[in-house]
Amino acid sequence: MRQLIELRTAQNNQRRLVEDPDALESFTAVLSTINQQIRRLENQVIALIDADPLWLALKTAFREIKGVAGRTIARLMAHVPEIGTVSGKAIAKLGGLAPLAHDSGKKSGKRPVRGGREAVRSILFIVAEIVRRHDPDFAAFHATLRAAGKPAKGIRIALARKLLVRLNAKARDVRKALAQLA
User: Which of 51, 118, 50, 110 is nearest to 80 (CA)?
Assistant: First the structure.
């Protein structure tokens, strides 16, 4: 699906440069087909999630956080199947949201956020901003970081990490509850 979304973006970008009506019609037809394929795949993913008891329970738990939508849930389940089975630090590292040391000998460098799974990190940056608008806890955390003079990128990373850790905790609780039922 990611490839179709990238293709749609490329087609839209190219379409902006075209002025010929016949070429525009061609772009419209191609974009229509791409959008149909994306919708078809999204529906298949939703059906797969709804058919599996664990995934359905995770979806329900994740949707409790206002701003976390179905597309986010599908991406998380696809790119981080370990969610709920590892610690908060480990999930942050998997998501590429943990600061990694850049030290050597007596030199102590910055600890940039790098590595991990880019697809997870990119969606969490967007979703964390949406969650911040709806969740008072995230809004207060954002305000605290801003008042402390943290850079905007650092705040984005901190919010995304907080969201991922919270989702991981919810997934852990769901997995425990389902294990007790079995």
Answer: 118
In this structure, how many other beta carbons lie within 10 angstroms of the beta carbon of residue 20? 9
Confidence of residue 95 (pLDDT cuts 50, 70, 90): confident
Coil, helix or strand for 28?
helix
User: 11 near 34, Cβ under 8 Å?
Assistant: yes
What residues contact residue 143 under an 8 Å CB cut-off, 6+ apart?
Answer: none
- Whole-angstrom Cα distance, residue 179 to residue 182? 5
Please choose, from the candidates 6, 122, 2, the residue with its C-alpha nearest in 3D space to the C-alpha of residue 113: 122
Q: Are 15 and 24 in contact (CB under 8 A)?
A: yes
| Contact status, residue 67 vs residue 133, Cβ threshold 8 Å | yes
Q: Kindly report, residue by residue over 107-144, the tens digit of the pLDDT.
A: 566 656 667 778 888 889 999 999 999 999 999 999 99
Q: Residue 59 to residues 21, 29, 49, 171: CA-CA distances in angstroms?
A: 44, 34, 8, 9
